[in-house]
C-alpha cells in the first residue's frame, strides 16, 4: 500500500515523531496507522502514542535577542506543571536559540532545523515529550531583524504566560521595554488606526448600526453616533492611541515621541489564546487510570 503525505501527517499528529520516522513506520506497517503506532512505541519513539489526540493549551512564551536579531515563540504543553519544569524550560530556550539564529520561514521549517548537538528541533521536542509524558508542540514563532539605528523592546509577564516583542526606530532601550510591557498588558491589535483593515472597520460599523439603542433614530443621527463609536473602537485596538499603561494621562504615541522612538511593528503572544481547552473531570480521570 502506498504511503501518502496525509497518512504521514496523521501519524505525526498522533505520536509527535519526525517525518522520516513516521514514513518508515508506515512502510513497515503497510499503511496501517495503529500498527505503525505500535511499532514506534516498541522502539520507544512514541511513549504516549495517543498524545496527538490531546490538547496542549498550557506552556510558555519566550523572547530572545542577539545583536540585530530577535525571536519570540510559544511552546505548548498539556499542563502548567510541565511548563514549569527544568526540561521544558531548557527546551524552550534551546528551540528559541535555533530559531533566532536560523530565522526559519514557518513552523515546519523550524522543526527540521538542527541545534548545536545535531538533533533537530522536532527531535528535541519529542525527547522532552517522552520524558514528561505530555504532548509538547511548537505552536508559533516570529523573528525580527533590526538596523543599527533601531532598537528592540521585549517583555515577558508572569514567567512567560504573555510575551511581547517590538521593533522601534530610535535608541532608547528602556522606553522600548516600557512600551513592550504596555503591549503585553493591554493587548493592542495594531500599531495605529491606519493599520486596521477596512473589513474590520466595516464589520464593527455593521455591528454598531444594529445596536438596539439606535432604533428609531434618524439616519443622520445614527451615522454621527456610529462614527463616534468607530473612533473609540479604533483607539482601543490601536497601540499609539491607547493611554500608556504607566501614565494614563499620556497616550503611547506621546510617550514614544518624547523618548525618540517610532513604533515599527510588534508581536504579542499569550499562552493558549485561541486554543479550545479540554474540560476534564478529575474523578473520571482517576477512574480511567484505575480501570
UniProtKB/TrEMBL annotation:
InterPro entries per the UniProt record, alphabetical: EF-Ts_dimer_sf (IPR036402), Transl_elong_EFTs/EF1B (IPR001816), Transl_elong_EFTs/EF1B_dimer (IPR014039), Transl_elong_Ts_CS (IPR018101), UBA-like_sf (IPR009060)
Origin superkingdom: Bacteria
One GO CC term, this protein: cytoplasm
Domain Translation elongation factor EFTs/EF1B dimerisation as annotated: residue spans: 70-273
Keywords attached to this entry: Cytoplasm, Elongation factor, Protein biosynthesis
Keyword Nucleotide-binding: no
Residue ranges, annotated region (Involved in Mg(2+) ion dislocation from EF-Tu): 79-82
GO MF entry, a single one: translation elongation factor activity
PROSITE patterns recorded: EF_TS_1
Statement: the UniProt record of this protein carries the keyword Protein biosynthesis: yes
Protein family (similarity comment): Belongs to the EF-Ts family.
Function text: Associates with the EF-Tu.GDP complex and induces the exchange of GDP to GTP. It remains bound to the aminoacyl-tRNA.EF-Tu.GTP complex up to the GTP hydrolysis stage on the ribosome.
Protein name: Elongation factor Ts
Organism: Fructobacillus durionis
Amino acid at each position: 500500500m502506498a504511503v501518502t503525505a496525509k497518512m504521514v501527517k496523521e501519524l505525526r499528529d498522533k505520536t509527535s515523531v519526525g517525518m522520516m520516522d513516521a514514513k518508515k513506520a508506515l512502510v513497515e506497517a503497510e499503511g496501517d496507522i495503529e500498527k505503525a503506532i505500535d511499532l514506534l512505541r516498541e522502539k520507544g519513539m512514541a511513549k504516549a502514542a495517543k498524545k496527538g489526540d490531546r490538547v496542549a493549551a498550557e506552556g510558555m512564551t519566550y523572547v530572545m535577542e542577539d545583536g540585530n536579531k530577535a525571536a519570540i515563540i510559544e511552546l505548548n504543553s498539556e499542563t502548567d506543571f510541565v511548563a514549569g519544569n527544568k526540561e521544558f524550560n531548557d527546551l524552550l530556550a534551546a528551540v528559541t536559540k535555533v530559531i533566532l539564529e536560523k530565522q526559519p520561514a514557518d513552523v515546519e521549517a523550524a522543526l527540521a532545523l538542527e541545534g548545536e548537538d545535531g538533533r533537530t528541533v522536532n527531535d528535541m521536542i519529542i525527547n522532552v515529550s517522552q520524558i514528561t509524558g505530555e504532548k509538547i508542540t511548537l505552536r508559533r514563532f516570529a523573528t525580527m531583524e533590526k538596523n543599527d539605528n533601531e532598537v528592540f523592546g521585549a517583555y515577558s509577564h508572569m514567567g512567560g504566560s504573555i510575551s511581547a516583542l517590538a521593533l522601534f526606530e530610535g535608541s532608547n532601550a528602556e522606553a522600548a521595554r516600557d512600551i513592550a510591557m504596555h503591549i503585553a498588558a493591554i493587548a493592542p491589535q495594531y500599531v495605529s488606526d491606519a493599520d486596521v483593515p477596512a473589513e474590520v472597520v466595516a464589520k464593527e460599523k455593521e455591528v454598531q448600526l444594529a445596536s438596539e439603542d439606535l432604533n428609531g433614530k434618524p439616519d443622520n443621527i445614527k451615522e454621527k453616533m456610529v462614527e463616534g463609536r468607530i473612533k473609540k473602537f479604533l483607539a482601543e485596538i490601536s497601540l499609539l492611541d491607547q493611554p500608556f499603561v504607566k501614565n494614563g494621562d499620556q497616550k503611547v504615541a506621546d510617550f514614544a515621541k518624547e523618548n525618540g522612538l517610532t513604533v515599527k511593528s510588534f508581536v504579542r503572544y499569550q499562552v493558549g489564546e485561541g486554543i479550545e481547552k479540554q474540560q476534564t473531570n478529575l474523578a473520571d480521570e482517576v477512574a480511567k487510570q484505575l480501570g
